[in-house]
Amino acid sequence: MCTSVMYQNAKGNWFLARTMDFSFELGGRPVVVPRNFHFKSDADAEGFDTKLGFTGAGRDLNGYILVDGVNEAGVGAATLYFDGLAKFAEETEADKINLAPHEMINWILGNVTSVAGLKAKINDVNIVAVANDLFKMVVPLHWIVADKTGACVVLEQDGDGMHVMDDPAKVMTNSPDFQWHLKNLNNYVQLKPTSHGEKTYGEFKSDAYGLGSGALGLPGDYTSVIRKSGIYP
Question: Which residue numbers are catalytic?
């Protein structure tokens, strides 16, 4: 049930936030990684190097693995579950940076100064189907990356390869794929932050019951009907 969202404060600064919802404690802690750091890699014996300093939440699994964070250039990134759809390479490639899925955040935050820069560099990366020490499996992941200008992209790798998609909604969750979620927003065009006004059907005038009618259609909206029924996400 992880969700990541961007928001802008009154001063015009952009922030990338996320929830982390697992059925067990991941044991994460705040981690600060200095500039010019060399990481070991589960995908490649040579490992990989970073240039930028960054901080985030992670865990030491024979070297720190981060699930989200922000770097000194103002690039933020988070990894979320992409179950049933993620597909990664079976072999390393000699002319590319070979990474396990769970190592992508470290590489992004350590080497990318903007979303535009990520788009230019992503073809240099080969994500290899290598198991994570904590989960004992190849973790199905996708990623959201944003910078201080408000630019935001989603990275998803499936059987068709790597997809780098601009995120106009500035939100990412889990499966299905990101394009499905964008299309699904068409089912909620009636949503608004304020209540709906009176509506006329022929000679009959209808009005919503109480406050919160702008959220009608969402699972667990704030109307009294839904609160009474006990239907919540």
Answer: 2
